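Recall the central idea of this unit: under ordinary conditions, the amino acid sequence of a chain determines the structure it adopts. In this exercise we apply that idea directly, starting from the sequence alone.
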Amino acid sequence: MSENSKKLVIVESPAKAKTINKILGNNYKVAASIGHIIDLPKTKLGVDIEDNFRPHYVTIKGKNKIIQELRREAAKVDEILLATDPDREGEAIAYHISNSISTSNKNIYRIEFNELTQTAVLNAIKHPRKVDDARVNAQQARRVMDRIVGYQVSPILWETIYRGLSAGRVQSVALRLLAEREKEINSFNSVEYWNVDAFLETETRDTLKARLFKIDQQTLDPNGFRIKNKQEAVYHQKTLEKEKYIINKIERKTVEKSPQPPFITSTLQQEASRRFRITTSRVMSIAQQLYEGINIGKLGNIGLITYMRTDSTRVSKESIQNARKYISNCYGISYLPAQPKQYGRQKSAQDAHEAIRPTYIQQDFEPRKIKKYLSNEEYKIYELIWRRFLASQMKPAKINKTTVLVEAGRYIFKSEGEVVTFKGFLVVYEEVTEEQDSKSDQDNGLQVIPQNIQEKDILNLKELKIEQKFTQPPPRFTESTLVKMLDKLGIGRPSTYAQIISTLFLRKYAERINRAIKPTELGMTVVELLIRHFPDIFNIKFTAKMEENLDKIEQGENNYFDTLNGFYQPFRVSLEKVLNQKGDIKKELLEETKISCDRCGRPMLLRWGRNGRFYACSGYPECKNTKPYEEPIQQDINVNCDFCGSKMIVKRGKFGEFLACSNYPECRNTKPISTGVSCPEGNCGGEIVQRQSKKGKIFYSCSNYPKCKFALWDKPIQVICENCEYPIMVEKVTQVKGLFYQCPKCKHTLSET
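Accordingly, the structure predicted from this sequence is:
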């Protein structure tokens, strides 16, 4: 390749093109393909299974113009450099671009870089290569496998439940995790137990709180040996009031808490979702913007982080040196380990990448110094990545931990405390624990233990408290904990998690309960059907094994046909069996009820339809009578009926949830559910309630209608728009962004907070 020849660089996004164009000189033309240009057809399978699983690709609608433009530009230059993203999908895009423009110019090379810096881009240009067929085959195998499952299983759901449902190879396994957790929660038997806390005082009037730990040398455990009821708790309380409290044992030790490695895709999604309550799809969208480039005033477009789809914790020597220099200058040599920290590689085909880190570790690029150029969300994610990377190269924190055992007759109390003596990496980064991953509340919590206490000291009892507790079921998954579980089990790839979770919401297989993800009744029905009839394909271990096989294709250890054939043969057996049982499966999903048809008197059946479940006459097609299914929901609501004073209950009907009198059918009063959001119209004083249109579409309007005619199609939330200060925002959800908030007035958007 000649250094002075005219070159065309092709990237995926216009934003990335803008950043690279700033780096390269006049001998380069930078163009964008705007993602994929070729894909499998939408209207048919597009895979010839009999011909070694050969895919039939078509040009994506609207991309002909882009291809023609790329061909024209290719004809004008000496060489073409394909700089699509440095992962399997990027390799596949490069492959399709190469095939599409090779008639104009055959001097086509592949380059890749992990960060959009001058050093990285110019170095990549010096090391061009051919498109990696193994990577392309690995991506194609994934695409073909997912297409076969989606296009051959989804129609079974259409014919047995209702049209429009989907069954994804990885998506359905994620749904299975949600469903199995929900079953655990529903079958959980809560057990009562009681805690006993002693509030003690030392001779020097220092206080110490300790929790009852042992009785007669038996350790208390909410699920085993425990104080079972109030009667027992009061007995122990009265006995303990007469006992003498002596410090039996003090254990002091210094421990080191080491920093976590820099972020990889899954850990960034987990931490950002947990810390900022941002959806995983939004996290990836923001990270993409930071990678492709942000306009930093006079500096122009700057790529602020390295590539965000990676499974590797490895970082370059240069970035480590820059981090060490920055730490030494800003925090002092005492925070710098003697040797640079190296983190172990992940067992993954994506290990050629670096971890997610800032591209520039310099004071000029500190988050606070460029904050004015970033949106609120961009700043949060950039600062998080910046701090995590710096912390990964700092000394561990030193913590003094103290455990005190207090003897009171046949009882032993325990108190634990800790003091940070050297903050180390904690000066820049403290981890946030998942709220729903809380430990058992049998723990008495950490406190500062008085330093002057000694073994055999006598303590003065100030107060004894008893408290009733109940064991809790395992928590529902949040986006953060679901990503963590998928990653732990090796299900799918971290770069796909955001889309998987968004699809579960879009298909109405799952819903949010506060921050938790709960499978809907539809989701539970779908996953039960899939597991029963495709036990191998939607098996967690089988799916994880397929991910390993895809990695081996990229590494050259497996071939394309053998991998797909090994997947397809057991799948085909299950598929043929199910296709012969469609009628029986559909009958299984019909639930006979004790409700009689009010037209012909025959029993009504509970069936599935696009709007959920409904009652249909068992005499169909002679009798076509249907009626909505109003499902009572177990939810406490402190609202009484306006007509009879009975308690109102929440029901779910054809058009969503509503309040109905519990005295039905004697009282048929119903009312819409308040969203708890105040009407934003002047001094209206009303609340926004959920209603339904004549066509059955959900909308939200003021409770003072018709006096106040304020209405919205989207669900409102009581969040003030940071852009125009409008008092409410509305919930939106898309495949790309996931769940986000939008101002109905100025259209400013904000991720879930």
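The two ends are 51 Å apart (CA to CA).
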